[in-house]
Design a protein that fits this description.
By secondary structure, the protein is mainly alpha-helical. The chain has one domain. The chain contains 5 helices and 2 strands. The chain is elongated and about 70 Å long.
């Protein structure tokens, strides 16, 4: 048994802590990249970008979604603010007047929090057995990007090509 009372570091042990000698590897997900709670975040960020990007002559919404997706994924793994800085630069390139990237980040997080609220509430209520599944149809998420963009960008989602939108839902 480990004497946790003698530990003087910055780690706080729960009163129920007990060593688990059988564990050989531990993965810390500091930024939520692997979290199923925040799964589907591009479906929130891409429509936000597409909605804020000034359209170029002859450019479709699908074109803006594709550009947004490419910019977002190129910066994937960096802090969200860098994607928002890229959005501001794209708006400026297109002749628009960008807002504050931090304000864009806050709006993205507000939309993401709205989307994942049910997942967080389910986990807080002890319901960890629910699985996330993909479904199609109109909904509050990603309605600005058509299925054509969704199927070319996210083929693993098994989209219905006739659907107008892509969204996450509980199974």
């Amino acid at each position: 048994m480990i004497d946790t009372a003698a530990f003087a570091g910055r780690v706080e042990f729960a009163p129920t802590f007990a060593p688990r000698p059988g564990i050989t590897h531990v993965l810390f997900d500091f930024d939520g990249t692997l979290s199923l709670i925040r799964q589907g975040w591009p479906d929130v960020m891409v429509p936000l970008f597409a909605e804020l990007l000034p359209p170029l002559p002859g450019e479709s919404g699908e074109d803006r979604c594709r550009l947004a997706f490419e910019d977002i994924m190129r910066l994937n793994g960096k802090q969200t603010i860098y994607q928002m800085i890229q959005l501001a630069e794209r708006i400026r390139e297109r002749g628009g007047t960008p807002g504050d990237p931090l304000a864009y980040k806050h709006e993205y997080l507000r939309r993401l929090d709205e989307r994942i609220r049910e997942r967080v509430e389910a986990l807080a209520g002890g319901d960890s057995g629910r699985m996330i599944s993909w479904c199609t149809g109109p909904g509050p998420c990603s309605t600005s990007c058509s299925a054509a963009v969704s199927t070319s960008i996210w083929p693993a989602a098994r989209m219905n090509p006739t659907s107008n939108a892509r969204r996450n839902c509980w199974a």
